[in-house]
Please model this.
Amino acid sequence: MSVLGDKKLENVVSCSWEVLNERSLQDALTLETCEVKRKRSLECMVSLETCVHLGSQSDSVPCQLEINVKKENLRITEISIVSEARIIEIYGKCGEYLATSHAEFLDECEDMVVYVADYKFPQPTPECSLKFARMKVKGQMWLYGIYINTEKDTASPDSTVNFHNVNKILKESSHQITDKADKCKKFLQMYSAYCVSGSSQTLPNPQSLLKVFDSLYLSQGSGVGSQAKNASKCFSDYIPAFASFSKSKNEGVFESSSVDTAEKTATSVEADDCVKFIVQELQKHIDRKFCELAASLSCQIDKKLGEIQERQDKKLDEIMHLLQTVKNA
Model:
């Protein structure tokens, strides 16, 4: 029903499978905020109006549900799924693997089974995806209802990177980042400290930021390369788009050919625009690298889980064969 209080939410869920009955995916969702959180019960999650029949004609397409409440300024804290799937894989905002939930069996009636799975997100997220597996009928599944508990997203649209979450993810992944990535993270942390200390009028001068960047990357003589002679060149080596940054109305252009040119043109560019551009490009670069890392880890985990699943299926087939042999004997 996708209702939050008196507000009806639209376009917060999509699925890789088609809806086979007269319902919509929105009907299956029930959203509530932490302030009005109730004790979970089957009655508040499932009704005739929330039952959605999903199906696919292709065996190669998994049943995957995408949920996004970012446009509503919400973040998902907990989720409960009632369906015919015995196993549900939960993925995060960037597609990174979070957990596998083995659903609890509730009931069976007229060749329809009911399983319920619960998951609490370690960090509230505006987006997540659910991959369903082990359905009773291959290529078809009944989704009886999804109960989502949310909280208001208090972060402003222009807020800086949440380094607490970044450090936590890096720690949990046990992945050692490179020296260059670590220095880039320190640079963004230094800028974030300025951002949270006051208004845009207190932001540091772009030239000062470039000097900080120089000291971080070139102090050891091997930050980006022996040919990197100034911070603009350093930025260009990391973020190619930086070299093409320009402003109209005779505000000047950043060039990375020499220190003198950079100093002359930097003075003609408004400080706010320059700072915004630098931070946006660095954030895009870091986000892209983290997404690539998450995708790589997710691919490896999926491969391992697939191998484990294949072995389990083989063992189950052997057990069923032995039981059938004993029964026939």
Q: What stands out?
A: The chain has two domains: 3-154, 163-291. Residues 87 and 102 are 5 Å apart (CA to CA). The chain is about 35% helix and 25% strand.
